[in-house]
Design goal:
Belongs to the ESF2/ABP1 family. This protein has about 200 residues and is α+β, with helices and mostly antiparallel strands. Helices cover about 60% and strands about 10% of the residues.
Length: about 200
């Protein structure tokens, strides 16, 4: 009876789908894309989903660059999902801190894999993180736009104030110039009278 229960439990365990495993790549070798990464890691086991984070500079012009050059995109980090958790652990242990390509003519010859197995990490966690980062970027962008508007309003207000102050200062300068001219004329008259008096004395 005990043996029958054990065989049933074993069969139930075998019927269960294997747990998936995810590895994290902190750096992506140059000229690598999702297709290339899938080809590389498929040698170790069945690969599920692959996500590579585009660099900020490339994300703006990704449409233009993708039409011009197939492998022109640059990626900063990536996540690779394996159908079996054991395979993901094995890949992280074998490839971490190893050379990407041993051929000297290869463009990845000087690159090293930086791979970490993510324990208890699911693909939904990645979606949540990306959604959070997207919302944070939007919030930051809104804050920057509001700050730019405040700066613009402050600048225009000060500019108008400066214009008013400038006209006021110009008027004061004109009045001051007029007063100086009058004083000069008066001093010239006084000097002339003194000169004439000195002649006839």
């Amino acid at each position: 009876m005990v043996e029958e229960i054990e065989t049933i439990n074993k069969s139930e365990k075998s019927d269960k789908a294997p747990k998936r495993g995810i590895i994290y790549l902190s750096t992506i070798p140059p000229y690598m894309n999702v297709t290339k990464m899938r080809e590389v890691f498929s040698e170790f086991g069945k690969v599920g989903r692959v996500y590579l984070q585009l660099a900020d500079a490339d994300s703006k012009n990704s449409v233009k660059k993708s039409k011009q050059k197939k492998f022109a995109k640059k990626f900063t980090e990536g996540w690779v999902e394996f159908e079996r958790k054991s395979v993901a652990k094995k890949v992280a242990q074998l490839l971490n801190n190893t050379q990407v390509n041993t051929r000297k003519k290869s463009k990845q010859y000087d690159c090293i894999w930086n791979i970490k197995y993510l324990s208890n990490f699911k693909w939904t966690h990645l979606h949540e993180r990306l959604a959070y980062e997207k919302a944070a970027r939007r919030q930051k962008l809104r804050a920057e736009i509001q700050l730019a508007k405040k700066k613009t309003n402050f600048f225009t207000a000060n500019l108008d104030k400066k214009k008013k102050d400038k006209t006021h200062i110009n008027k004061e300068l004109e009045n001051l110039d007029a007063m100086l001219i009058e004083e000069e004329n008066e001093t010239n008259v006084e000097d002339r009278t003194e000169f004439l008096q000195s002649l006839f004395t």
